[in-house]
């Protein structure tokens, strides 16, 4: 049975929970939530939906399907009031230590550092690998599978928005297509993942020296940066003076945003971008080399070969 993809928000930031299925029990859910939020199973309070409403997790034996929990949901985790009062009696230093060991601390103002590009593999999943890096701080080339599933489920659930005119193909055909490892991601996929993860994704376009902001109208509190050269995506991160790195930034931090803008201008002036009419692709099925997007599309139409790699 397929895993559920559930976003969890708590005092420790936000994480993606993907270890449970619809047949998992409420008790198992509580254990996982406790491990990533530092709230004991007995004191966990779960809110769901918009506006957020309490989710009944009183029966540990119930299956997640029985309490209406589905993939793509966002859970807000809080401590029950009694537990919160008890925590308030702890010393200030105790609270500091507790927050200090959080898996993902809430982002604060950027420390001095340099905005840099992290190079990810040049495969058909570079967008998803890049998003995985800014979310988790490491390169994991397997994250594309889950992200593709998230996108397909979102598209399949809204035929009116995601129609053939928008997708360039019928809804069902697109849903099957995007889950293939050979399919590239672009603006549609970035927009969906921005909403799913609840943060703004700023794509630094070095071809046009501009930044395209996805989720800007949602007033998200956090922002991440991706670099796009016309074909390939790489994540951007701040290399800090103490050797650490930061990939998630406060949305109100315009200093780092201006630095990303400057990076785009410098990349364009030094021609660090790929001209879609001149870049070379290789058909991974018949090994034919193709020049430009038009040739690749023509080859795919004539041969039904749809797996291409960058050269």
UniProtKB/TrEMBL annotation:
Hydrolase that can remove conjugated ubiquitin from proteins and may therefore play an important regulatory role at the level of protein turnover by preventing degradation. Its EC number is 3.4.19.12. It catalyses: Thiol-dependent hydrolysis of ester, thioester, amide, peptide and isopeptide bonds formed by the C-terminal Gly of ubiquitin (a 76-residue protein attached to proteins as an intracellular targeting signal). It is an enzyme of class 3 (hydrolase). It is found in: Cytoplasm. Residues 115-239 form the OTU domain. This is Ubiquitin thioesterase OTU. Transmembrane segments: none annotated. GO terms for molecular function: cysteine-type deubiquitinase activity; zinc ion binding. Keywords: Cytoplasm, Hydrolase, Metal-binding, Protease, Thiol protease, Ubl conjugation pathway, Zinc, Zinc-finger. Residues 1-77 form the UBX domain. SUPFAM superfamilies: Cysteine proteinases, Ubiquitin-like. Residues 4-77 form the Ubiquitin-like domain. It holds the Pfam family zf-C2H2_OTU1_C.
